[in-house]
């Protein structure tokens, strides 16, 4: 089945790419989660719009990515969340929470889809996260989760 990717899917492509995948993968995973739309002849207009949006948001060169990496690694990020007496959180910290905390701490604007937590953050304390800025550039960032 031919589909148009609306988000970056690792191992498949980036937003705006037209790819051919198995029917079940497209029908059961990509389309319901909003990662892709079905390809149609009229969908070519959508491809141009998606690519324009991607070009605005993405970091184009490795040099730009290294500059943003230096900015990120210089930011001290504290994230205040609700927690119980034993230091366990009510819920967990999401990539969107981390992206907004980076922005609030004076760091660069980071897309939440670029934040990689590894495992869910469910306790107070210092945690290491990574932000994939470019295919070859990953910024390591320390986030301190404190009780609100």
From TrEMBL:
Limits of the Ribosomal protein L9 domain: 13-40
Matching PROSITE patterns: RIBOSOMAL_L9 (PS00651)
State the GO CC annotations: ribosome
Q: Which UniProt keywords apply?
A: Ribonucleoprotein, Ribosomal protein, RNA-binding, rRNA-binding
Query: Key word tRNA-binding present in the record?
Result: no
Described by its record, this protein's role is as follows:
Binds to the 23S rRNA.
Family affiliation: Belongs to the bacterial ribosomal protein bL9 family.
Q: Name it.
A: Large ribosomal subunit protein bL9
Gene that produces this protein: rplI
